[in-house]
Specification:
The protein is built from 24 helices and 19 strands. It has 689 residues and is an alpha+beta fold.
């Protein structure tokens, strides 16, 4: 038997002693019972490992290693169980599902350890004894490692939080000692039992049950010095004082404060160090009361005083309290101090106030009920008379509504009634103009019949007309059921329909008028042959562009185009094909230019182009060259292929003129100069022209 075997047997004896020692301190304590289970688990683990270290053969090593699995497989669950009981996680521990979750992984690992490989796949003999050969490639190695780490981390966190929340110094120190020693022993054991074997380093035997001595020593110190798992009257009284809901103050015979409980700190706002050694008069609102308190302490006959007084908090607020003051005497019956227990009366006062308010409210409610009963009797008689009149009014109103509906349905114009934006009723003329039947229109959103782009305007205009801010009808586009867009004119007014506010609307179809207006506008501003803007529209757009150029301090250009030898086309192919050619030219030019530019037919074979927002004359020259290029492709006119060129004159604003007349005139001069120089070219206007 080698050194590690003896050390492991010693650990076995220590764990057995420590477990039963704690158990005998308080056999009914759940904490002591679970700690005994942990110690027995460690003792079994240590006992089995004492034979592993010094086994004569590898078969014996494997036998005792599997026996030891009962200890190291269940240890993670047991240690977490102990730490949760210590940290008072009663809610979690009361759940039935918790224990299968806590011990289930350990049982699975134990079954695997008894039949296969978990943490060790082999053993090597060394001068120090048999050393485990780790099996990190095995899934069960990581299952056991993760199970152990999770249990330790959860337990340590629970104890750490418990110590941080506790108001009892003894419990804070217990928690600190347990966390420190368990963290240290777990770290050392983890390195020796798992990390070193996993690195295939076969130097030191696995001594985890021995390294946990560190934690066992910490538990022993906590039991001896901080009374862990020990129940005594002093400890019980300390816990009671720390957790009592009343204020407790201990003073000496002169009224100097010796001790206060946490509830006193919480209610008065002081820290214990702020009040210790101070006179109790510091927290008594009534100075005479403080003097009387000190005098009573000095009287040997005074036993107990109960009185309702006021305490003063750190912030100066007054708190009503009911105090019970008892004198503490020594064996000679001399006063050695006093204990003051004070009950915070604020909840009681608040409850009394609520009771008074509720009592007053109940009395007022009773009187109101009696008055209501009297009024009900009076109103019952009145309602009987009113009911007869109401029935007559209902009959008359129904007759009026029937008459209104009859007249409404016979109106010769499209009419409807809507409430909350939904159609309620529509006459036959409205059905004819929309294409919908009345049963389809009912509950339909009125705006759904309006062309989407006009809906916001219709909402605005109808509201203005109903409010009286708009006197004349408004026009918009309506969508027929077949998808056709029709122009209509509408008037609306507010009425009452079926006892609710409603909108009465009347609509007239003005599509024919709109089409006529559009045709007139088209003829007035567009060339009848090509559809391009004419001279009038060109001048209007020039004025708009001129204002933009003056505002932005930018240039613009007018290009005058004239088709070369167009007369020969007319004479050779006829005027019909000549007109066709002009249309094709206009189509090509329109497809080439930007949306901001304007092309117009000025008459005959002359076209005018307005270029806005150009940077310099070079921009105009580039456009003119591209215009010449698009004439390179021939035109196909009803089977005839016609090639034609153009001469272009360019005038730039503001250098070549400030008005449309001056720019057109100068562009025309430059165009004729281009024709004189051989056609099929562009020229800028110069003063020498």
């Amino acid at each position: 038997m080698n050194f590690f075997s003896l050390l492991s047997l010693f650990a076995f004896l220590v764990y057995v002693f420590l477990g039963f020692y704690a158990f005998l301190l308080d056999r009914r304590s759940r904490l002591n019972q679970v700690f005994l289970a942990v110690c027995l688990d460690l003792a079994f683990w240590s006992f089995a490992y004492s034979f592993v270290y010094g086994a004569p053969t590898k078969e014996v090593v494997w036998f005792w290693f599997r026996i030891s699995a009962l200890g190291w497989c269940t240890f993670p669950g047991l240690i977490l169980h102990f730490l949760l009981v210590l940290s008072q996680k009663r809610s979690l521990l009361s759940k039935k599902w918790f224990y299968p979750v806590l011990y289930g992984p350990g049982v699975l690992v134990l079954l695997r350890a008894l039949t296969g490989v978990v943490t060790a796949k082999d053993f090597d003999r060394t001068p120090l004894g048999w050393v485990e050969v780790g099996a990190p490639e095995n899934l069960w190695f990581w299952v056991h490692s993760i199970y152990l780490i999770v249990c330790l981390v959860l337990g340590l966190v629970a104890v750490f939080h418990w110590g941080g929340r506790s108001k009892v110094v003894r419990e804070q120190r217990q928690a600190r000692l347990v966390v420190m020693t368990l963290s240290l022993s777990a770290g050392v054991a983890f390195i020796i039992n798992l990390v070193i074997p996993a690195l295939q380093s076969h130097i030191v035997p696995a001594v985890a049950p021995v390294t946990i001595f560190i934690w066992g020593a910490g538990i022993w110190r906590a039991m001896i010095k901080y009374r862990l798992m020990v129940l005594s009257p002093a400890i019980a009284s300390e816990a009671i004082v720390a957790r009592m809901k009343d204020l407790l103050i201990l003073t000496d015979p002169l009224g100097a404060i010796l001790k206060i409980n946490p509830q006193t700190e919480k209610v008065l706002g002081y820290q214990a160090g702020d009040l210790l050694g101070q006179s109790i008069s510091l927290i008594l609102q009534d100075k005479e009361m403080a003097k009387e308190f000190t005098n009573c302490l000095l009287k040997k006959s005074m036993e107990m005083v109960e009185k309702e007084i006021r305490f003063r908090t750190l912030t100066g607020d007054e708190i009503p309290v009911h105090v019970s003051c008892s004198v503490i005497r020594d064996e000679a019956e001399s006063p050695v101090g006093a204990v003051v227990i004070a009950q915070d009366l604020r909840p009681t006062k608040e409850l009394e106030r609520e009771i008074r308010v509720r009592t007053g409210a109940e009395e007022a409610l009773r009187k109101a009920h009696e008055e209501l009963e009297h009024r009900i009797q009076e109103r019952t008689a009145e309602l009987a008379q009113t009911n007869e009149a109401l029935e007559r009014e209902i009959i008359e109103r129904r007759a009026a509504e029937d008459l209104f509906r009859t007249l409404f349905m016979r109106l010769p114009i499209s009419s409807y009634i809507a409430q909350d934006g939904k159609l309620c009723i529509a006459n036959p003329e409205f059905e004819r103009n929309t294409g919908y039947q009345e049963d389809e229109l009912i509950a339909m959103n009125a705006l759904s019949l309006v062309y989407p782009e006009d809906q916001e305007k219709v909402k605005k205009w109808s509201l203005e007309m109903i409010k009286g801010d708009r006197a004349h009808p408004y026009e918009f586009r309506a969508v027929h059921r077949d998808g056709q867009i029709r122009w209509v004119m509408e008037t609306v007014t507010s009425i009452r329909y079926q006892e609710r506010l409603a909108t009465l609307g009347s609509i007239i179809d003005i599509t024919d008028r709109k089409e006529s207006e559009e045709m007139i506008r088209q003829l007035a501003y567009h060339d009848s042959l090509t559809g391009l803007p004419n001279r009038t529209l060109f001048r209007d757009r020039f004025r708009i562009a001129l204002a933009r150029s003056e505002r932005n301090n930018s240039e613009m250009a007018i290009l005058m185009l004239d088709l070369d030898q167009f007369k020969e086309v007319n004479d050779t192919l006829g005027h019909n094909l000549g007109d066709y050619l002009l249309k094709e030219v206009g189509h090509r030019l329109s497809g080439f230019l930007r949306k901001s530019d304007t092309i117009a037919r000025m008459g005959g074979d002359e076209f005018m182009i307005l270029l806005q927002e150009i940077r310099n004359r070079e921009d105009a020259a580039q456009v003119a060259q591209k215009l010449r290029d698009i004439f390179q492709a021939p035109f196909h006119l009803e089977g005839q292929v016609v090639g034609i060129t153009t001469s272009i004159g360019i005038a730039v604003y503001p250098g070549d003129g400030l008005t449309v007349e001056a720019l057109i005139k100068n562009a025309d001069r430059a165009m004729y100069q281009a024709k004189e120089q051989g056609r099929n070219r562009y020229l800028f206007y110069t003063s020498a022209d």
